[in-house]
Specification:
This protein is α+β, with helices and mostly antiparallel strands. 19% of the residues lie in helices and 33% in strands.
């Protein structure tokens, strides 16, 4: 049995004393040394113990002696230890990006990263330089026809010689009018092998979509470029779209699939006859839009042909029809739009009124048959109302002069122009440009002399606001009603084909 004591473990009754763990044996309990004879060297030292247990009798004189001995030994080891001085190493400078790319091109890295660095291994003495780099036998590229561009210029930019570009353009012009080629048309070209670098490559093939219903291709056969026209089947029947107005006429029509331009034209046509704000959510809209669908899948949308509106038992039906070169929406009865009020022909200030006045150049009083508007030289002049140009040219004291004939015996005249744009016999719309402000004829400065005539008599332009209404009759009315009936027979989402009704009156698209 062992009992726990303060100094360690001791044997029980009748047992020998046990030594605590980690403690040195007392001097009297240690075995004698063979080297020191009978008593050993510890006997000669007496009770002095050089190895002090610092874990026992803490604070005693023996403990302090052992602590001093330990501190002395540690201090001596530290004092006699050799010093450690670090040797500074020199790191290489960072290469700039350009030098790094140059250095990397001479290493093995480009073999793995040549695809993204664009560099390869440097040539060795095994590589023999070429006297002349070989050319590709042919080059395939795509050119784009730009706004206001010329077909020959497109070919020349692609590398075709000017002489050959002009010859090819003449061939294409025979196949399709160049004016019909729209901006943005992509032209596929193949340039062949050239005899020398000093010459342009010959054009081996050419292909482009000239219109939705026509493809033009050219290929060199036996040294001659042969061009052919490839017609494409097109269904040019219009598209009908119907639906409820709901909370917004524009949003509902767009959600039903109507193009933006068609919806805007629809709202404009209806607003000329009724208040759009008064439409109810249960009213139904009906649009028929010109559309062409090619056999290859392309779709080309045109103008609004028919505008219909159902408000309970009341129906509004408008068909776009062309009469005398001008298009407008006619009601089902053949009555066209009511157009009234004149537009001021120029943006300027009134400098002289209608009536008797003293002429600034002639020096005597005479009747002034119009209004004078002072404006900057070169300011645009527009037609006050729609009509047909009856005269355009020099007119004595009026200088450059234009007269437009309107319906109902009304006419307007414009004098002292610097330049005339309108042509005699051509129809003009209200607000269309007809010339520019000048000071030709008997004039003291740039201004517009504006006249209004009724049945051959000059009237005060400030007092005239006339209204005209187009009315179809005879063969035009019959053709109009036949076309309207064919369009109304179309189911929503289906289509029907329109046909021309004559030289003077025809559907706008058909």
């Amino acid at each position: 049995m062992y009992l726990r004591q303060e100094s360690g473990l001791a044997a029980g009754a009748g047992g020998a004393a046990a030594i605590g763990f980690g403690q040195a044996l007392p001097l009297h309990a240690r075995a004698p040394s063979r080297r020191s004879g009978r008593g050993g060297w510890r006997d000669r030292l007496g009770t002095f113990d050089p190895v002090v247990d610092l874990g026992a009798r803490i604070g005693s004189a023996t403990w302090w002696r052992g602590m001093a001995t330990c501190a002395l030994l540690c201090g001596g080891a530290i004092a006699t230890a050799p010093g450690i001085i670090p040797l500074p190493g020199r790191s290489p400078a960072v290469l700039p990006e350009a030098q790094w790319q140059e250095a990397r091109s001479l290493g093995i890295t480009p073999l793995a990263l040549g695809g993204d660095t664009g560099r390869r291994m440097a040539a060795t003495e095994v590589v023999e330089p070429l006297v002349d780099t070989p050319e590709r036998p042919s080059i395939d590229l795509t050119a784009t026809f730009g706004q206001g561009d010329g077909f020959a210029r497109v070919l020349e930019r692609a590398g075709v010689s000017a002489q050959e570009a002009q010859a090819v353009t003449a061939q294409v012009a025979d196949a399709v009018p160049l004016a019909q080629i729209r901006a943005g048309t992509r032209i596929a070209l193949t340039l062949g092998r050239r005899p020398s670098r000093a010459q342009a490559r010959p054009l081996d093939s050419l292909a482009f979509r000239a219109r939705i219903d026509l493809r033009v291709e050219a290929r060199r056969v036996n040294g001659v470029l042969a061009l052919r026209r490839i017609p494409i089947a097109v269904d040019d029947t219009p598209l009908r779209i119907t639906g409820r107005i709901g909370s917004s006429l524009y949003a509902s029509a767009r959600a039903a699939g109507a193009p933006v331009d068609a919806v805007v034209a629809y709202i404009r046509a209806l607003s000329a006859r009724m208040s759009i704000g008064g439409l109810g959510s249960g009213d139904r809209f009906d649009l028929i839009v010109a559309q062409r669908r090619a056999a290859t899948g392309e779709v080309e949308t045109g103008d609004l042909l028919y505008a219909g509106l159902a408000q309970g038992s009341r129906e509004t039906r408008l068909l776009k029809w062309t009469v005398g070169g001008q298009s407008q929406f006619f009601e089902a009865s053949g009555v066209g739009e009511r157009r009234g009020g004149m537009t001021q022909p120029v943006s300027g200030r009134l400098t002289s009124g209608f009536g008797m006045r003293r002429h600034p150049l002639l020096g005597f009083s005479r009747f002034h048959r119009g209004l004078d508007f002072g404006a900057a030289y070169g300011a645009p002049i527009v037609a006050a109302a729609a009509g047909v140009v009856r005269y355009a040219g020099w007119h004595g004291g009026h200088g450059q002069y234009v007269m437009i004939q309107h319906g109902g015996g009304m006419a307007t005249a414009y004098g002292h122009m610097s330049r005339i744009v309108a042509r005699a016999g051509a129809p003009v719309a209200q607000g269309q440009l007809i010339g520019y402000v000048g000071s030709t004829g008997l004039s003291t400065g740039p201004h517009l002399h504006y006249e209004v005539w009724r049945n051959g008599v000059a009237v005060n332009p400030a007092s005239v606001r006339f209204t005209t209404t187009a009315q179809l009759a005879g063969a035009n009315l019959a053709a109009f009603r036949a076309t309207l009936a064919r369009l109304l027979a179309v189911r929503p989402g289906a289509a029907t084909r329109t046909a021309a009704s004559g030289d003077t009156a025809r559907p706008v698209a058909g």
